[in-house]
Structure to design on (167 residues):
């Protein structure tokens, strides 16, 4: 018994010397409450630094600074997507388009299909059966046409969603 008591006294005397820096960090309260907060703080700091450095390039100070644009020389200059020519050459099925022009003629009596002509004179078929408009378009009025492209094997047409007269 004497040996056991001596060992216990020895442990009590010298155990305080081995506590050091890591013992308070390994307590249950620190790991449960403080460590997750420090981890989240470190993640937020990393995210903030990443976001702020994405636009770190020089931006210029004059109003005449050149606007960014895509590369030139691929034939994109003459076919804009807001023209009938641009829709016929570049648009894909289910693309949304906005065109400016006139309804020229009715294509079919069975369906509500018209020919639409833009300022350059190009024509495209427009299906008005699903549009939100209650009144048929007039032939001498210029309209904004908003619709969805429908491509089949040999033709391209537009399903009109809305058309409004230009004022």
């Amino acid at each position: 018994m004497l040996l056991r008591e001596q060992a216990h006294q020895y442990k009590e005397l010298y155990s305080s010397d081995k506590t050091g820096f890591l013992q308070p960090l390994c307590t249950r309260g620190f790991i449960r409450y403080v460590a997750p907060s420090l981890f989240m703080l470190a993640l937020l700091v990393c995210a903030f630094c990443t976001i702020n450095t994405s636009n770190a390039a020089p931006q210029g100070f004059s109003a005449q600074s050149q606007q960014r644009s895509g590369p030139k020389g691929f034939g994109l200059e003459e076919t804009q997507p807001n023209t009938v020519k641009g829709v016929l050459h570049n648009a894909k099925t289910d693309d949304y388009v906005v065109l400016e022009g006139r309804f020229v003629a009715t294509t079919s009596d069975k369906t509500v299909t018209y020919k639409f002509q833009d300022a350059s004179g190009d024509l495209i078929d427009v299906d008005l059966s699903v549009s939100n408009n209650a009144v048929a378009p007039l032939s001498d009025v210029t309209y904004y046409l908003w619709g969805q492209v429908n491509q089949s094997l040999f033709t391209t047409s537009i399903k009109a969603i809305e058309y409004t007269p230009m004022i």
